[in-house]
Predict the structure.
Amino acid sequence: MTGWLLFLATSAMTAPQANLASNGPAAADHSTPESTPKAYVVADIRVTDAEGYQAYLSAISPVVKKHGGIYIARAGRTMSVEGAPPSGRIVIIEFPSFAAAEAFENSQEGLAAGEIRHQTATSRIFVVEGSKP
């Protein structure tokens, strides 16, 4: 089963948050939920080894949860509106803030899971800033 996997993660940071985030993935996020947009990590993943990719899915799901991520869409139906259609499944993961999405991407567990993904898929991953509430 080969396919595309799309992660979406975004949020905005104030200058002090950006300074904290630049000090490492464990930096504190002192923003309030009312003032911080949600975050969506976007990953475009073409699976090349479906059986091996299952190990990645098992490894990454607890990391998503640990960093406050919530699967918004996971392997549901898609409809191409413009441009080339996806060739497989789309997954969207929401995070409470850009800092949380960044911490997820930079975590030791996430990086270790990424090594499995690199062996079983090709990917493009983005962190996108969301709109302010």
Summary: DSSP finds four helices and five strands in the chain. The longest helix spans residues 50-66. Residues 44 and 124 are 5 Å apart (CA to CA).
